[in-house]
Amino acid sequence: MLRDGKYAVWFRTPRGQGTGIVHLTEGRISGGDSFFIYGGSYRVDELHFSGVLTVHRYADGPPSVFGPDEVEVNLSGACNGLVATCSGTAKEVPDVKFEATLIYSQEDQPAADARGAVVRLNADKLPKGLDSRSRARHPVVPASPGSERNRP
Asked: Which residue of 11, 23, 24, 109 sits 20 to 30 Å from the alpha carbon of 31, by its own alpha carbon?
């Protein structure tokens, strides 16, 4: 079963490879990387899925793994727990095979007792003066008009 959530995605074509982040939520795909935005839709049938992915450039950068900067990719794949693999082609460049691996990203939940915890400062535990780990700073003295600092 393909879960709703955030996935790290590694994709490749014969022209190159890249990585990004996709969010799958109730049949909708959204996400992107440093140069492209992804969108689209998908359907799940047991352990198999299919979808349509659109890719649009939003920032200058290296060439797309497809060639063109805007494509629509028809995908099909399989999911196995937290990992999904798929392949497909873009209708704009049907001779370029696209493959991707999606890895489900489980967000670490903060510990229940750490949320909203207040840390109280105890000033009595702060260092009182210099010790062997610190040294005194020299005071800053402004240069006088005839000093070495002001000579060319």
From this structure: 109
Contacts of 7 (CB under 8 A, 6+ apart): 21, 22, 23, 24, 84, 102, 103, 104, 105
Tell me if 58 sits within 8 A of 75, measured CB to CB.
Answer: no
**DSSP per-residue codes, 47-114:** TEEEEEEEEEE-S--SPPSSSSSSEEEEEEEEEETTEEEEEEEETTEEEEEEEEEEEE-PPPPPPTTT
Helices (H) and strands (E) in the chain, counts: 0, 8
Return the SS3 of 125: helix
Tens of pLDDT, residues 67-99: 999 999 999 999 988 999 999 999 999 999 999
Record the pTM. 0.69
